[in-house]
Amino acid sequence: MQMIIVDDEAHWVDNLSMNKPWGTLGIEYVHKAYSAMEALQIIDIHPIDIVLSDVQMPEMSGIELIEQIKIKNRKIKCIILSGHSDFEFTKKALQHNAVDYLLKPPTDLELFSAVETAISQLKNEWELISSLERTQHTSGEPTDSAWTASA
C-alpha cells in the first residue's frame, strides 16, 4: 500500500513520513506533498491508497482535496489532521467520508489507529469486490456470445 502525507508545514510532512514505522502497518511507500495541488499531481501518477492531509492549507483546503480525490478515485481513504478542533471542519470531513479527524499533534496511537482503520476498510472493500466478481463468474450467467449463439 502507498500513502501520501499532505501539509503546507514541511516539518509535519517530513516528521510524519520519516519518523514512523509505516512498514509495520503494510505501508510500502510514503509520498510527501507540501500542498494540495502537489498531492493531486502525485495521486495522478502513483497508486495511492491512503491520504493523510492537513485541513487548512493555501490554495485548497484538506476538505476540498478530499472532494477532488473522491472525484478521481472513490477508493482512496482520507484522514484529516488539524490544528483546529472546530466542529464544522470535523463535520465536513465526515460528510466526505474521511476515515478520521485527528488534532495536531496526534499521538502515535491515534495516528496508527486511523491508518489501521483505513487499511481495514480498504481490505474489506477489496474482499467484497473480489467476492462479487467470483460470484458473477461462477453463477453461470450466459455471456453475450453464448446468448447470441443460441438466438
Automatic annotation (TrEMBL):
Assigned keywords, A-Z: Cytoplasm, DNA-binding, Phosphoprotein
Residues in coiled coil: none
Domain called Response regulatory: residue spans: 2-119
An annotated Gene Ontology molecular function: DNA binding
InterPro entries: CheY-like_superfamily, HptR, Sig_transdc_resp-reg_receiver
Superkingdom per UniProt: Bacteria
SUPFAM superfamilies recorded: CheY-like (SSF52172)
Region forming the signal peptide: none
GO BP, one annotated term: phosphorelay signal transduction system
SMART domains listed in its UniProt record: REC (SM00448)
Modified residues (4-aspartylphosphate): 54
Alphabetical list of Pfam families matching this protein: Response_reg (PF00072)
Keyword Transmembrane helix applies: no
CDD domains: REC_YesN-like (cd17536)
Keyword Phosphoprotein set for record: yes
PANTHER family in alphabetical order: HISTIDINE KINASE-RELATED (PTHR42713), TRANSCRIPTIONAL REGULATORY PROTEIN HPTR (PTHR42713:SF3)
The protein, known as: DNA-binding response regulator
Organism: Paenibacillus pini JCM 16418
